[in-house]
Amino acid sequence: MGQTMMMMIQTLTFWLSEHPSIVGFRWSHTQSWGSTWSFLFGSIALYLTLSLLLHLTLSLLLHNHSRPIPLGPIPAIHSLTMALISATIFAGTLLSAAAEIRDTRWLWLRGRSSRLRTPLQWLLCFPLGTRPSGRVFFWSYLYYLSRFLHMLRTLFAVARRRRLSFCQLLNQSILTFVSFLWLEFSQSFQVLAILSATLAYAAVYGYRFWTALGLRGACFPFVVTCQIALLGCNVACHVGVLTLHLMKGGCNGIGAWFLNSVLNAVILLLFLNFYVKMHLGKKKKKMKSVDGPGGPRPVGSGRF
Fold first, then answer.
1. Region of residue 252 (left: phi > 0; alpha: psi -120 to 50; beta: else)
2. Could you report the per-residue pLDDT of 215-236, keeping only the tens digit for each?
3. In this structure, are residues 75 and 212 in contact, taking their beta carbons and an 8 Å threshold?
4. Is residue 175 part of a domain?
5. What are the angstrom distances between the C-alpha of 298 and each of 22, 78, 212, 283, 304?
6. What pLDDT does residue 284 have?
7. How many Å apart are CA 38 and CA 156, to the nearest integer?
8. Statement: residue 85 has pLDDT above 60
9. Contact 94/195 with Cβ under 8 angstroms?
10. Which residue has the higher pLDDT, 58 or 143?
11. 136 closest CA partner among 170, 166, 90, 96
């Protein structure tokens, strides 16, 4: 039993971090699909256009009908697929980061930047001159490609409610753009960002699949809690990158990191705005249920 388990672990490790395609990966505009700036902006423009067209079409054709369009098992299948993809990218990134630290740690003893190189500092701050090649950048590339699958959820939301959320459009576009910057400029901090994001996505999409099957949901806002934890982790990592860059001699891709920080701040503001509106909306509903049609009533009297 123990030997079988060990063989399974070795096989999994090989396919997630030691396969020649993973070890020999190199981000290239000529060899990597979707690696050009024109593709990036074209795909984001297509995403925005399709979302807008679907919203306008449903609004014009079904303006007298309030029922959402039935999508059947498609959203549940999408949630399950995204949960599995996110879990795979998380495991691959974790194993690949451990392998990179193991294989290249001896290089950290050379050169002026040796004082930077501890495992945690490497995760936050790539050495200057780092190129987008190797294990962790392979999984960063797959994470970038998975962003286009995340965009499908916007189309599902429009089909269900026929409302187009500006916040969702901007959030998906920014996250896709940021994941491209990670690869294009070998940006520091991306390993921890991918690990935290894919862990949160695996939990959120797994939860959505669970509830789509009709099973009981959590007694607290599970998705919002995961989003808060992810945003908090990102803020802490950004502080760590800035500290290492200023005190330890510089981090690779700091210009892209600065733009990444600005875009993440936009996402944070959008989330806080959404959370405040959601909280106020629940409070108003609660007040209406307490007041009732006949005016205010004490909380302990009658039914809500």
1. beta
2. 888 888 888 889 889 988 988 8
3. yes
4. yes
5. 65, 46, 37, 16, 11
6. 65
7. 26
8. yes
9. yes
10. 143
11. 96
Q: What is the Cα–Cα distance from 120 to 101, expressed in whole angstroms?
A: 10
Cβ atoms 207, 223 nearer than 8 A = yes
Over residues 88-126, the pLDDT tens digits come to 999 999 999 999 988 876 555 554 444 546 888 889 999
Q: What is the pTM of this model?
A: 0.87
Count of alpha carbons within 13 angstroms of residue 242, beta-carbon side: 10
Instruction: Report which DSSP code applies to 9.
Output: H
Evaluate whether 132 touches 183 at the Cβ level (below 8 Å).
Answer: yes
Q: If DSSP codes are grouped into helix, strand and coil, which group holds residue 275?
A: helix
Q: Decide if pLDDT at 19 tops 60.
A: yes
User: Under a CB-based contact definition with an 8 Å cutoff, are residues 80 and 205 in contact?
Assistant: yes
Report residue 275 as tokens. Answer: 């959370």
Rounded Cα distance between 15 and 32, Å, is 20
Write out the two tokens for 149: 């699958």
pLDDT of residue 164: 83
Number of domains in the chain: 1
Instruction: Spell out the alpha helix ranges (H) of 64-112.
Output: 74-104
17 domain residue, yes or no: no
The reply to whether 144 falls in a domain is: yes
> What residues have CB less than 8 Å from 46, skipping those under 6 apart?
none
Closest by CA to 172, choosing from 134, 201, 138, is 201
Looking up tokens 């000529």, which residue turns up? 30
Angle made by CA atoms 298, 303, 304, in degrees to the nearest 5: 80
Distance of CA 151 to the CA centre of its chain: 11
Q: What is the pLDDT of residue 182?
A: 96
* pLDDT tens sequence across 203-214: 999 999 999 998
Residue 243 resides in a domain:
yes
Domain extent at residue 137: 76-283
